[in-house]
Amino acid sequence: MINIKTDSRKVKKGDIFVALRGIVGDGHDYIPKAIENGASKIIAEEGEYSIPYEIVKDTREYLNNYLKEHYNKYLNEMHLIGITGTNGKTTTAYLIYDALKKFDKKCCYIGTIGFYLGEKKETLPNTTPEVTEIYDMLIKAYDDGYRYAVIEASSEGLLHRRLENVPFEYAIFTNLTQDHLNIHGTMANYAMCKQKLFNQLRPHGKAIINYDDPNKGIFMLDYNDNITYGFTGGDYRITDYQMSILGSNFTFIKDDVKQNIKVPLIGKYNIYNVLVTIIILRELGFNYGEISDVLLYIESPPGRMDMVEYKNNRIIIDYAHTPDAVLNIISTVKEVCDGNIYVVFGCTGDRDRTKRPIMTKIVTDLCDKAIITCDDVHNEDPNQIVNDMIDGLKNTNYEIELDRKKAIIKGIKLLTTNDALLILGKGHEEVMIVKDNKRIPFNDKKTVLNYLESSKVIRIEKIDD
What we know:
alpha/beta
Protein backbone atom coordinates (compact mmCIF):
# COMPACT_ATOMS: atom_id res chain seq x y z
CA MET A 1 0.00 0.00 0.00
CA ILE A 2 1.22 3.50 -0.76
CA ASN A 3 1.66 6.00 2.09
CA ILE A 4 0.19 9.09 0.45
CA LYS A 5 -3.55 9.81 0.32
CA THR A 6 -5.97 12.35 -1.15
CA ASP A 7 -9.09 11.02 0.60
CA SER A 8 -9.10 12.00 4.28
CA ARG A 9 -11.37 9.04 5.09
CA LYS A 10 -8.66 6.63 3.96
CA VAL A 11 -5.81 8.25 5.87
CA LYS A 12 -4.13 5.98 8.41
CA LYS A 13 -1.51 6.75 11.01
CA GLY A 14 1.72 7.89 9.33
CA ASP A 15 0.21 8.71 5.92
CA ILE A 16 0.90 11.92 4.02
CA PHE A 17 -2.28 13.80 3.08
CA VAL A 18 -2.34 15.87 -0.11
CA ALA A 19 -5.12 18.45 -0.40
CA LEU A 20 -6.30 18.49 -4.03
CA ARG A 21 -8.65 21.07 -5.45
CA GLY A 22 -11.35 19.37 -7.52
CA ILE A 23 -14.41 20.20 -9.57
CA VAL A 24 -16.91 19.60 -6.76
CA GLY A 25 -14.72 19.79 -3.67
CA ASP A 26 -11.54 21.15 -2.14
CA GLY A 27 -9.23 18.81 -0.26
CA HIS A 28 -8.18 21.70 2.00
CA ASP A 29 -11.60 21.44 3.68
CA TYR A 30 -10.76 17.90 4.80
CA ILE A 31 -7.35 18.54 6.33
CA PRO A 32 -8.74 18.49 9.92
CA LYS A 33 -10.22 15.04 9.27
CA ALA A 34 -6.91 13.80 7.84
CA ILE A 35 -5.09 15.04 10.94
CA GLU A 36 -7.69 13.39 13.16
CA ASN A 37 -7.13 10.09 11.33
CA GLY A 38 -3.39 10.16 11.97
CA ALA A 39 -1.76 11.96 9.03
CA SER A 40 1.95 12.57 9.64
CA LYS A 41 2.26 15.44 7.15
CA ILE A 42 0.01 17.77 5.16
CA ILE A 43 0.74 18.96 1.63
CA ALA A 44 -1.36 22.01 0.79
CA GLU A 45 -1.42 25.17 -1.30
CA GLU A 46 -2.23 27.46 1.65
CA GLY A 47 -2.74 27.57 5.42
CA GLU A 48 -0.98 26.64 8.66
CA TYR A 49 -1.49 23.34 10.46
CA SER A 50 -0.84 21.64 13.80
CA ILE A 51 1.36 18.90 12.33
CA PRO A 52 4.31 19.08 9.90
CA TYR A 53 3.16 20.58 6.61
CA GLU A 54 4.48 21.84 3.30
CA ILE A 55 2.96 24.58 1.15
CA VAL A 56 3.39 24.03 -2.58
CA LYS A 57 2.19 25.87 -5.69
CA ASP A 58 0.34 22.88 -7.18
CA THR A 59 -0.61 19.92 -4.98
CA ARG A 60 -1.51 17.83 -8.02
CA GLU A 61 1.97 18.27 -9.46
CA TYR A 62 3.53 17.46 -6.08
CA LEU A 63 1.43 14.29 -5.81
CA ASN A 64 2.24 13.00 -9.27
CA ASN A 65 5.96 13.66 -8.86
CA TYR A 66 5.96 11.93 -5.46
CA LEU A 67 4.26 8.86 -6.86
CA LYS A 68 6.61 8.73 -9.82
CA GLU A 69 9.72 9.06 -7.64
CA HIS A 70 8.69 6.49 -5.02
CA TYR A 71 6.73 3.86 -6.96
CA ASN A 72 7.47 3.90 -10.69
CA LYS A 73 10.51 1.70 -10.16
CA TYR A 74 8.02 -1.08 -9.37
CA LEU A 75 5.51 -0.18 -12.08
CA ASN A 76 8.28 -0.26 -14.70
CA GLU A 77 8.60 -3.97 -13.97
CA MET A 78 4.96 -4.50 -14.97
CA HIS A 79 3.36 -4.68 -18.41
CA LEU A 80 0.91 -1.78 -18.10
CA ILE A 81 -1.72 -1.60 -20.84
CA GLY A 82 -3.84 1.57 -21.10
CA ILE A 83 -6.99 1.76 -23.21
CA THR A 84 -8.91 4.87 -24.24
CA GLY A 85 -11.75 5.59 -26.67
CA THR A 86 -15.47 6.31 -26.56
CA ASN A 87 -16.63 2.73 -27.03
CA GLY A 88 -14.94 -0.63 -26.58
CA LYS A 89 -12.68 0.25 -23.65
CA THR A 90 -14.26 -2.10 -21.16
CA THR A 91 -14.73 -5.04 -23.51
CA THR A 92 -11.23 -4.77 -24.97
CA ALA A 93 -9.65 -4.38 -21.54
CA TYR A 94 -11.58 -7.35 -20.20
CA LEU A 95 -10.76 -9.55 -23.20
CA ILE A 96 -7.04 -8.87 -22.72
CA TYR A 97 -7.38 -9.52 -18.99
CA ASP A 98 -9.32 -12.76 -19.57
CA ALA A 99 -6.90 -14.00 -22.25
CA LEU A 100 -3.85 -13.40 -20.05
CA LYS A 101 -5.55 -15.23 -17.19
CA LYS A 102 -6.21 -18.16 -19.53
CA PHE A 103 -2.48 -18.13 -20.29
CA ASP A 104 -1.88 -18.43 -16.52
CA LYS A 105 -0.45 -14.91 -16.33
CA LYS A 106 -1.21 -12.88 -13.22
CA CYS A 107 -3.11 -9.91 -14.63
CA CYS A 108 -5.28 -7.33 -12.88
CA TYR A 109 -7.98 -5.13 -14.41
CA ILE A 110 -8.94 -1.56 -13.45
CA GLY A 111 -11.92 0.05 -15.11
CA THR A 112 -15.66 0.53 -15.46
CA ILE A 113 -16.66 -2.81 -13.94
CA GLY A 114 -14.23 -2.54 -11.04
CA PHE A 115 -10.83 -3.70 -9.80
CA TYR A 116 -10.22 -7.37 -10.54
CA LEU A 117 -7.33 -9.01 -8.72
CA GLY A 118 -7.41 -12.79 -8.76
CA GLU A 119 -10.74 -13.87 -7.31
CA LYS A 120 -11.31 -10.48 -5.67
CA LYS A 121 -13.61 -8.00 -7.38
CA GLU A 122 -13.97 -4.49 -6.00
CA THR A 123 -16.33 -1.83 -7.34
CA LEU A 124 -14.83 1.57 -8.16
CA PRO A 125 -16.32 5.08 -7.99
CA ASN A 126 -15.12 5.94 -11.50
CA THR A 127 -13.84 4.18 -14.61
CA THR A 128 -10.47 5.80 -13.87
CA PRO A 129 -10.15 6.39 -10.10
CA GLU A 130 -7.98 9.02 -8.42
CA VAL A 131 -4.26 8.58 -9.07
CA THR A 132 -3.48 7.48 -5.50
CA GLU A 133 -6.11 4.75 -5.87
CA ILE A 134 -4.57 3.67 -9.17
CA TYR A 135 -1.11 3.43 -7.60
CA ASP A 136 -2.53 1.69 -4.52
CA MET A 137 -4.12 -1.01 -6.70
CA LEU A 138 -1.05 -1.44 -8.90
CA ILE A 139 1.37 -1.66 -5.97
CA LYS A 140 -0.92 -4.18 -4.26
CA ALA A 141 -0.95 -6.21 -7.48
CA TYR A 142 2.84 -5.94 -7.75
CA ASP A 143 3.32 -7.08 -4.15
CA ASP A 144 1.06 -10.07 -4.87
CA GLY A 145 3.24 -11.10 -7.81
CA TYR A 146 1.22 -9.60 -10.64
CA ARG A 147 3.22 -8.33 -13.63
CA TYR A 148 0.35 -7.50 -16.01
CA ALA A 149 -2.31 -4.79 -15.63
CA VAL A 150 -5.00 -3.53 -17.99
CA ILE A 151 -6.33 -0.05 -17.23
CA GLU A 152 -9.20 1.89 -18.78
CA ALA A 153 -8.27 5.52 -19.35
CA SER A 154 -11.42 7.64 -19.42
CA SER A 155 -11.34 11.14 -20.88
CA GLU A 156 -12.39 12.59 -17.54
CA GLY A 157 -9.63 10.68 -15.76
CA LEU A 158 -7.08 11.96 -18.26
CA LEU A 159 -8.48 15.49 -18.00
CA HIS A 160 -8.02 15.50 -14.24
CA ARG A 161 -4.52 13.99 -14.48
CA ARG A 162 -5.43 10.77 -12.70
CA LEU A 163 -3.01 8.74 -14.84
CA GLU A 164 -0.22 11.28 -15.09
CA ASN A 165 3.23 9.65 -14.86
CA VAL A 166 1.84 6.08 -14.92
CA PRO A 167 4.46 4.41 -17.15
CA PHE A 168 2.35 2.59 -19.73
CA GLU A 169 4.01 0.06 -21.99
CA TYR A 170 1.03 0.04 -24.38
CA ALA A 171 -1.54 2.72 -25.20
CA ILE A 172 -4.64 1.67 -27.19
CA PHE A 173 -7.11 3.90 -29.05
CA THR A 174 -10.43 2.23 -29.94
CA ASN A 175 -12.55 5.00 -31.50
CA LEU A 176 -13.94 8.49 -30.96
CA THR A 177 -17.66 9.28 -31.19
CA GLN A 178 -19.92 11.77 -29.44
CA ASP A 179 -19.95 11.57 -25.66
CA HIS A 180 -19.05 13.65 -22.60
CA LEU A 181 -19.49 16.98 -24.38
CA ASN A 182 -20.98 18.32 -21.14
CA ILE A 183 -17.44 18.05 -19.77
CA HIS A 184 -15.23 18.75 -22.80
CA GLY A 185 -17.41 21.18 -24.74
CA THR A 186 -16.22 20.14 -28.20
CA MET A 187 -15.14 16.96 -29.95
CA ALA A 188 -11.72 18.53 -30.53
CA ASN A 189 -11.23 19.01 -26.78
CA TYR A 190 -12.48 15.49 -26.18
CA ALA A 191 -9.96 14.05 -28.65
CA MET A 192 -7.02 16.04 -27.29
CA CYS A 193 -7.86 14.89 -23.79
CA LYS A 194 -7.65 11.25 -24.87
CA GLN A 195 -4.38 11.99 -26.67
CA LYS A 196 -2.75 12.54 -23.26
CA LEU A 197 -2.45 8.77 -22.83
CA PHE A 198 -0.18 8.60 -25.89
CA ASN A 199 2.17 11.23 -24.51
CA GLN A 200 3.26 9.13 -21.56
CA LEU A 201 4.47 5.85 -23.00
CA ARG A 202 7.65 4.54 -21.43
CA PRO A 203 10.73 4.15 -23.67
CA HIS A 204 10.11 1.41 -26.28
CA GLY A 205 6.40 1.47 -25.48
CA LYS A 206 3.90 1.04 -28.32
CA ALA A 207 0.70 2.79 -29.44
CA ILE A 208 -2.07 0.64 -30.95
CA ILE A 209 -4.51 2.70 -33.02
CA ASN A 210 -7.75 2.09 -34.92
CA TYR A 211 -6.88 2.81 -38.55
CA ASP A 212 -10.55 3.12 -39.53
CA ASP A 213 -11.30 5.98 -37.15
CA PRO A 214 -11.12 9.41 -38.84
CA ASN A 215 -9.37 10.79 -35.76
CA LYS A 216 -6.47 8.33 -35.93
CA GLY A 217 -3.95 11.04 -36.85
CA ILE A 218 -4.40 12.68 -33.45
CA PHE A 219 -3.08 9.53 -31.81
CA MET A 220 -0.38 8.52 -34.30
CA LEU A 221 2.38 10.63 -32.77
CA ASP A 222 5.71 10.74 -34.61
CA TYR A 223 7.75 9.89 -31.54
CA ASN A 224 5.78 6.69 -30.75
CA ASP A 225 6.07 3.22 -32.22
CA ASN A 226 2.61 3.00 -33.82
CA ILE A 227 0.73 -0.19 -34.72
CA THR A 228 -2.55 0.17 -36.63
CA TYR A 229 -5.50 -2.15 -37.15
CA GLY A 230 -8.79 -2.03 -39.05
CA PHE A 231 -10.96 -3.14 -41.93
CA THR A 232 -9.85 -0.50 -44.46
CA GLY A 233 -6.14 -0.71 -43.75
CA GLY A 234 -3.50 -0.95 -41.05
CA ASP A 235 -0.68 -3.24 -39.99
CA TYR A 236 -3.34 -5.77 -38.98
CA ARG A 237 -6.09 -5.65 -41.63
CA ILE A 238 -9.37 -7.57 -41.38
CA THR A 239 -10.35 -9.00 -44.77
CA ASP A 240 -13.66 -10.72 -44.06
CA TYR A 241 -15.93 -11.97 -41.29
CA GLN A 242 -19.01 -14.14 -40.77
CA MET A 243 -21.36 -14.06 -37.83
CA SER A 244 -24.12 -16.12 -36.21
CA ILE A 245 -25.95 -15.73 -32.93
CA LEU A 246 -23.30 -17.98 -31.34
CA GLY A 247 -20.13 -16.26 -32.50
CA SER A 248 -17.91 -14.83 -35.22
CA ASN A 249 -15.27 -16.07 -37.63
CA PHE A 250 -12.89 -13.56 -39.20
CA THR A 251 -9.66 -13.35 -41.17
CA PHE A 252 -6.92 -10.75 -40.93
CA ILE A 253 -3.63 -10.15 -42.71
CA LYS A 254 -0.36 -9.23 -41.00
CA ASP A 255 2.89 -9.06 -43.02
CA ASP A 256 1.13 -10.71 -46.00
CA VAL A 257 0.19 -13.74 -43.88
CA LYS A 258 -3.49 -14.60 -43.33
CA GLN A 259 -4.80 -15.72 -39.95
CA ASN A 260 -8.28 -17.06 -39.20
CA ILE A 261 -9.87 -16.55 -35.80
CA LYS A 262 -13.06 -17.89 -34.20
CA VAL A 263 -14.59 -16.28 -31.12
CA PRO A 264 -17.84 -16.76 -29.15
CA LEU A 265 -18.67 -13.05 -29.58
CA ILE A 266 -20.78 -11.29 -32.18
CA GLY A 267 -20.65 -7.85 -33.77
CA LYS A 268 -18.25 -6.07 -36.07
CA TYR A 269 -17.27 -3.86 -33.14
CA ASN A 270 -16.26 -6.98 -31.18
CA ILE A 271 -13.97 -8.01 -34.04
CA TYR A 272 -12.11 -4.75 -33.47
CA ASN A 273 -11.93 -5.55 -29.75
CA VAL A 274 -10.64 -9.08 -30.38
CA LEU A 275 -8.05 -7.89 -32.90
CA VAL A 276 -6.61 -5.47 -30.34
CA THR A 277 -6.40 -8.39 -27.92
CA ILE A 278 -4.51 -10.41 -30.55
CA ILE A 279 -2.06 -7.54 -31.13
CA ILE A 280 -1.32 -7.21 -27.42
CA LEU A 281 -0.84 -10.96 -27.02
CA ARG A 282 1.51 -11.05 -30.01
CA GLU A 283 3.51 -8.16 -28.59
CA LEU A 284 3.76 -10.03 -25.30
CA GLY A 285 5.26 -13.03 -27.09
CA PHE A 286 2.42 -15.48 -27.69
CA ASN A 287 2.14 -17.22 -31.07
CA TYR A 288 -0.96 -17.33 -33.25
CA GLY A 289 -1.67 -20.98 -32.51
CA GLU A 290 -1.76 -20.34 -28.77
CA ILE A 291 -3.85 -17.20 -29.25
CA SER A 292 -6.39 -18.93 -31.50
CA ASP A 293 -6.89 -21.69 -28.95
CA VAL A 294 -7.48 -19.26 -26.10
CA LEU A 295 -9.86 -17.06 -28.10
CA LEU A 296 -12.20 -20.00 -28.66
CA TYR A 297 -13.13 -19.69 -24.97
CA ILE A 298 -12.75 -15.93 -24.45
CA GLU A 299 -15.41 -14.29 -22.28
CA SER A 300 -16.96 -10.85 -22.60
CA PRO A 301 -17.32 -8.67 -19.49
CA PRO A 302 -20.51 -8.62 -17.42
CA GLY A 303 -23.26 -6.49 -18.94
CA ARG A 304 -21.81 -6.51 -22.45
CA MET A 305 -23.96 -8.45 -24.93
CA ASP A 306 -25.17 -10.49 -21.95
CA MET A 307 -27.86 -12.88 -23.21
CA VAL A 308 -30.75 -14.76 -21.63
CA GLU A 309 -32.79 -17.20 -23.71
CA TYR A 310 -36.56 -16.92 -23.39
CA LYS A 311 -38.44 -19.61 -25.33
CA ASN A 312 -37.15 -19.03 -28.88
CA ASN A 313 -36.29 -15.38 -28.16
CA ARG A 314 -33.23 -13.66 -26.80
CA ILE A 315 -33.04 -10.94 -24.18
CA ILE A 316 -29.80 -8.97 -24.44
CA ILE A 317 -28.46 -6.72 -21.68
CA ASP A 318 -25.79 -4.23 -22.74
CA TYR A 319 -24.08 -1.10 -21.41
CA ALA A 320 -24.50 0.78 -24.73
CA HIS A 321 -25.23 4.41 -23.82
CA THR A 322 -23.80 6.48 -26.69
CA PRO A 323 -25.23 6.94 -30.20
CA ASP A 324 -22.43 4.91 -31.77
CA ALA A 325 -22.69 2.06 -29.26
CA VAL A 326 -26.47 1.89 -29.62
CA LEU A 327 -26.19 1.88 -33.42
CA ASN A 328 -23.58 -0.90 -33.30
CA ILE A 329 -25.48 -3.28 -31.06
CA ILE A 330 -28.84 -2.90 -32.80
CA SER A 331 -27.21 -3.29 -36.22
CA THR A 332 -25.43 -6.42 -35.00
CA VAL A 333 -28.60 -7.99 -33.63
CA LYS A 334 -30.45 -7.20 -36.89
CA GLU A 335 -27.89 -9.34 -38.73
CA VAL A 336 -28.70 -12.45 -36.70
CA CYS A 337 -32.31 -11.96 -35.59
CA ASP A 338 -35.11 -13.36 -37.77
CA GLY A 339 -37.94 -11.78 -35.78
CA ASN A 340 -38.80 -8.40 -34.30
CA ILE A 341 -36.38 -6.27 -32.31
CA TYR A 342 -37.55 -4.34 -29.26
CA VAL A 343 -35.46 -1.94 -27.17
CA VAL A 344 -35.78 -0.69 -23.59
CA PHE A 345 -33.52 2.29 -22.94
CA GLY A 346 -33.16 5.72 -21.35
CA CYS A 347 -30.61 8.52 -21.13
CA THR A 348 -28.50 9.56 -18.17
CA GLY A 349 -29.33 12.77 -16.31
CA ASP A 350 -26.84 15.60 -15.81
CA ARG A 351 -24.92 14.50 -18.91
CA ASP A 352 -24.64 15.52 -22.56
CA ARG A 353 -28.20 16.48 -23.59
CA THR A 354 -27.39 16.76 -27.31
CA LYS A 355 -27.01 13.00 -27.76
CA ARG A 356 -30.47 12.19 -26.37
CA PRO A 357 -32.59 12.80 -29.51
CA ILE A 358 -29.84 11.24 -31.65
CA MET A 359 -30.04 8.00 -29.66
CA THR A 360 -33.83 7.92 -29.77
CA LYS A 361 -33.90 8.39 -33.53
CA ILE A 362 -31.38 5.58 -34.00
CA VAL A 363 -33.39 3.23 -31.79
CA THR A 364 -36.77 3.99 -33.36
CA ASP A 365 -35.34 3.90 -36.89
CA LEU A 366 -33.81 0.45 -36.40
CA CYS A 367 -36.13 -1.41 -34.02
CA ASP A 368 -39.78 -2.42 -34.24
CA LYS A 369 -40.69 -0.76 -30.96
CA ALA A 370 -38.91 1.17 -28.21
CA ILE A 371 -39.87 1.55 -24.59
CA ILE A 372 -38.33 4.75 -23.24
CA THR A 373 -37.56 4.60 -19.53
CA CYS A 374 -35.25 5.98 -16.87
CA ASP A 375 -31.51 5.48 -16.66
CA ASP A 376 -29.52 7.16 -13.87
CA VAL A 377 -31.40 10.47 -13.62
CA HIS A 378 -29.08 12.02 -11.02
CA ASN A 379 -30.55 15.45 -10.17
CA GLU A 380 -32.45 15.96 -13.40
CA ASP A 381 -36.21 15.71 -13.90
CA PRO A 382 -36.93 12.38 -15.68
CA ASN A 383 -39.67 14.06 -17.71
CA GLN A 384 -37.20 16.63 -18.99
CA ILE A 385 -34.83 13.85 -20.05
CA VAL A 386 -37.62 12.12 -21.96
CA ASN A 387 -38.71 15.40 -23.55
CA ASP A 388 -35.15 15.87 -24.80
CA MET A 389 -35.11 12.30 -26.12
CA ILE A 390 -38.25 12.70 -28.25
CA ASP A 391 -37.66 16.32 -29.28
CA GLY A 392 -38.24 16.54 -33.05
CA LEU A 393 -38.85 12.80 -33.34
CA LYS A 394 -41.18 11.84 -36.21
CA ASN A 395 -41.21 8.09 -35.51
CA THR A 396 -44.13 6.92 -33.41
CA ASN A 397 -43.05 3.34 -32.60
CA TYR A 398 -42.34 4.00 -28.95
CA GLU A 399 -44.01 4.28 -25.58
CA ILE A 400 -42.87 5.86 -22.34
CA GLU A 401 -42.65 3.95 -19.05
CA LEU A 402 -40.47 5.73 -16.50
CA ASP A 403 -40.42 2.78 -14.09
CA ARG A 404 -37.47 0.77 -15.46
CA LYS A 405 -38.64 -2.53 -13.95
CA LYS A 406 -42.09 -2.12 -15.51
CA ALA A 407 -40.50 -1.12 -18.81
CA ILE A 408 -38.39 -4.29 -18.86
CA ILE A 409 -41.40 -6.47 -18.10
CA LYS A 410 -43.38 -4.75 -20.86
CA GLY A 411 -40.52 -5.48 -23.24
CA ILE A 412 -40.45 -9.16 -22.29
CA LYS A 413 -44.20 -9.45 -22.85
CA LEU A 414 -43.77 -8.23 -26.45
CA LEU A 415 -41.65 -11.26 -27.36
CA THR A 416 -43.24 -14.05 -29.41
CA THR A 417 -40.93 -16.22 -31.57
CA ASN A 418 -37.36 -15.54 -32.75
CA ASP A 419 -37.58 -11.97 -31.42
CA ALA A 420 -34.94 -10.01 -29.54
CA LEU A 421 -35.28 -7.59 -26.64
CA LEU A 422 -32.35 -5.24 -26.04
CA ILE A 423 -32.12 -3.61 -22.62
CA LEU A 424 -29.53 -0.87 -23.00
CA GLY A 425 -27.66 1.65 -20.92
CA LYS A 426 -26.79 0.10 -17.56
CA GLY A 427 -25.24 -3.27 -18.33
CA HIS A 428 -23.44 -4.59 -15.26
CA GLU A 429 -24.48 -1.77 -12.92
CA GLU A 430 -26.09 -2.70 -9.61
CA VAL A 431 -27.75 0.62 -8.69
CA MET A 432 -29.94 3.40 -10.06
CA ILE A 433 -28.61 6.86 -9.18
CA VAL A 434 -31.29 9.42 -8.38
CA LYS A 435 -31.48 12.84 -6.72
CA ASP A 436 -28.75 13.81 -4.24
CA ASN A 437 -26.65 10.85 -5.39
CA LYS A 438 -29.01 8.39 -3.73
CA ARG A 439 -28.32 4.85 -4.96
CA ILE A 440 -31.20 2.43 -5.29
CA PRO A 441 -30.34 -1.26 -5.83
CA PHE A 442 -31.19 -2.25 -9.41
CA ASN A 443 -29.69 -4.56 -12.02
CA ASP A 444 -31.18 -5.16 -15.47
CA LYS A 445 -30.25 -8.82 -15.76
CA LYS A 446 -31.44 -9.67 -12.25
CA THR A 447 -34.70 -7.91 -13.03
CA VAL A 448 -35.12 -10.08 -16.14
CA LEU A 449 -34.26 -13.32 -14.38
CA ASN A 450 -36.41 -12.56 -11.34
CA TYR A 451 -39.42 -11.84 -13.53
CA LEU A 452 -38.98 -14.96 -15.66
CA GLU A 453 -38.49 -17.18 -12.63
CA SER A 454 -41.40 -15.70 -10.69
CA SER A 455 -43.75 -15.93 -13.66
CA LYS A 456 -42.78 -19.59 -14.15
CA VAL A 457 -43.68 -19.37 -17.81
CA ILE A 458 -40.48 -20.92 -19.12
CA ARG A 459 -37.30 -22.73 -18.32
CA ILE A 460 -34.50 -20.17 -18.28
CA GLU A 461 -31.23 -20.91 -19.98
CA LYS A 462 -28.45 -18.45 -19.21
CA ILE A 463 -26.30 -18.13 -22.29
CA ASP A 464 -23.73 -15.88 -20.63
CA ASP A 465 -23.82 -15.13 -16.95
